[in-house]
Amino acid sequence: MMTILIVLFVLGFVAGAQQTDGNPHSAAYDVTWSPRGPSSTIPPLHPSDGVFPTQWCNPRPQHLKADKGILFLRRNLFDGAVLPAGTKLGHARRAGTASTVTGTNLAPPPFDYGSLRNILTYYNIAPGSEQARQVASTLRFCGRSEARGGDQPEKPHLCATTERAAMEFAAAALGAATAEPLRTVVHGREEPHRYVVAPGGVASIAGAVVPCHPLPYPADVLYCHRPSNVGAVRVELVGQDDPTLGATAIAVCHEDTSGWDAEYFATLNGSRGEPICHYMPEKYVVWVGGEIH
């Protein structure tokens, strides 16, 4: 369970996801934690990297900060439920990007930590900057997860640099001939001040799912994994004051939270073990199986 927590709340929501000016920034969750357990040795980091240590082995969340409305108890999802004011499911975007490619005809460097300097040069990212540290963290994490093996039956995972790679991984992880993507879509020119769940707006999505979370990198990189005891729902949301605004949101629900840190339940006023869900904002993807083998 703690592996799922570090994946969802550290990688997906802390490390990157939200893009406002072409650069990755922190998004929905701010979680700090300390690795524990016999296999928690962190590989040496070069001091110039400025990389925070990311680890698979028994991380224990120590602090949680969730954006309004993103994380919620499953029992609080019903017709007419009002989300907190300011809940954001989309990502603000401004014209232009801070990172530019240095040559129009150059192929990007390999997605590998050993190519970090070339990657920073290619995307015109200043060494030692916050964006450089985030890129280095993504490369180190994906390199370590690949080295540990992404085909473990109990927790298959993959850092995908193309949507096709994500789809093929999801299909294999789900035991299906193919996989279909589900994404949150924000309707209208902007997001409303408050979302409300529309009448008949909650629909369960059958079967297992593979969530994919964007990582901080100047090109698209998705961390995909197949958690256990997890389902998904589609939620139709409308603006409380302006029904022309709204969203079709995808949420992932964890059915067994008995191993979660106590702060989640204190934050949500919930009970240990009860289902907890979180919306998947734009740029996140949930894959469902197509034809089963």
UniProtKB/TrEMBL annotation:
Signal peptide extent: 1-16
Pfam family for this entry, one: BURP
SMART domains on file: BURP
UniProt KW keywords: Signal
Domain BURP span(s) in chain numbering: 71-290
Name of the protein in question: BURP domain-containing protein
Species this protein is from: Triticum aestivum
Origin organism lineage: Eukaryota, Viridiplantae, Streptophyta, Embryophyta, Tracheophyta
